[in-house]
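Hi support team,

I submitted a single chain yesterday and got back a structure, but I'm not sure I'm reading the token output correctly. Could someone confirm the output below corresponds to the sequence I sent? I've pasted both exactly as they appear in my results page.

Thanks,
R.
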Amino acid sequence: MNHKAPEKIQNVGVIGAGRMGQPIIGHLARKGFTVRVHDIDLGKRGAAESRGGSWSADAAGLARVCEAILICVGYDRELRDLLSDDGIFGHVRRDSIIAVLSTVHPETVRELAARGRSRGLHVVDATMCRGAWAADEGTLLSFVAGSPEIVERLRPVLAAFSSDIVPTGDIGSAQVAKAANNMIMWACLVANHEGLALAHRYGLDIETMRKALLTTHAANASLDHWGRQSMAWADDDMEIVAAMAKERGIALKQADAVREICRWLKPRRFQLDEYGTK
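Hi R., thanks for writing in. Yes, this is the structure output for that exact sequence:
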């Protein structure tokens, strides 16, 4: 029996045109994809269209015409609402791929993937690392989970904005990879503050120290990009880590401490005179 070859992806939907979604739209358009965009914030329309996206007034309309849909919403609850019977699930074309770029709990993606399979859809997680500046440059690291066949179908889409694509295995595992990334990233940011704050109190020049440390084993990307992190998602990222650790019965003492420090640090970030003060 001859099986029909999987449909080549040409029409890509992007739901969520925020800080990460906007540059992704531009990279996809420049690579020749037809890009349709939806966001609940109508104010994002102009920027999306200027980058080559075609605005969809509703997510359902976008879902009906796209072979792949990239989800860039902010929170777990938004993802669940979107991928529901009242959301886009009833409108997505059979055999289409829904890629969750958002950072959520692995179990959320597994549940949604199981529901998608019953409808003939492929829900996978394709988490992004390296931050907004890498999104601007098109040099993100994308972890992607799912069957090898679906990952290969999706690869050209991810390659439009990612310089590195790492398959991680079964559905949900890309979220685990992103959680590990986030744990280490935020721990490095806290350690950078503490090390530089101590050096600052002893009168050392911080920029000289920072450049020197980048040549040692203390080097890390957060130190390289010192001053650029907004910490917008620190607490949400670490909340997911805490839930995952509890689920698997593992005590992550440093992660717990980093979460608390990040809550205090966010409004004071990069202000070394204030670090460690009451």
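A quick pointer for reading it: The longest helix spans residues 173-201. Let us know if anything else looks off.

Best,
Support desk
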